[in-house]
Amino acid sequence: MTAKLVIFDFDGTLADTTDSILFTYRRTIEEMGLPERSDDECRATIGLPLREGFRFLYPDFSDSALDECVVTYRRIFNENKDSFITRLYPGVLETLNELKRRGVAMSVASSRSRVSLVELCESAGISGFFGLILGGDDVAHAKPNPEPVLLTLKTLGCEARNAVVVGDMPVDIAMGDGAGCRTVGVTYGNSSRAELVAAGATRVVDAMPDILLPE
How far apart are alpha carbons 151 and 213 in whole angstroms? Predict the structure, then answer.
């Protein structure tokens, strides 16, 4: 991969946070007495802003009911976050170090709240690699809207043709494509190769180091 800037998704791309997300969904649904949803249904919302994730799960809910879901989810997550372990996927740290060695700029664009995202990047020991860390509340329109990527390009002074967006969900691919960037889908997160290909990913890889091409 030749690029001047790589924009990474976080959940399912850099770190395996799926268990903590599903745990928090299950506890929220149980505490609020909501209709049950399967882990696969909850997993399909990863990458969306939290409110839109609940809208996906409960499309008939009112705005106020969705707001209550978000507040409850965040409270439960914060109550349990010290028990969650942020594990980087195999090869992530090595890949970040290699990109840094090559002089490639890096950033993160996630739908997580900024506070949570920064905390997780710091706990995983990778925050220092990134020139910009964008959470879902840093933009007016989160992914799949291209705004997070467009803001990143503007802030870091990079043209879209020189940037690559890396993510595990179709919303990541749509975000990068909408901004005019090349995209790489990773299959080890929460989507299949077929889903990432259908989303229009420029490339699809099975491991993080595979985003690298020989110099």
Answer: 26
pLDDT digits (tens, 9 = 90+) for 10-41: 999 999 999 999 999 999 999 999 999 999 99
Q: How far apart are CA 20 and CA 28, in angstroms?
A: 12
Q: How far apart are CA 45 and CA 171, in angstroms?
A: 10
Give residue 175's pLDDT band: very low, low, confident or very high (50, 70, 90): very high
Helices (H), 6-164: 18-32, 39-43, 50-57, 63-80, 92-101, 114-123, 147-156
SS (H, E, C) 14-51: CEECHHHHHHHHHHHHHHHCCCCCCHHHHHCCCCCCHH
pTM equals 0.90
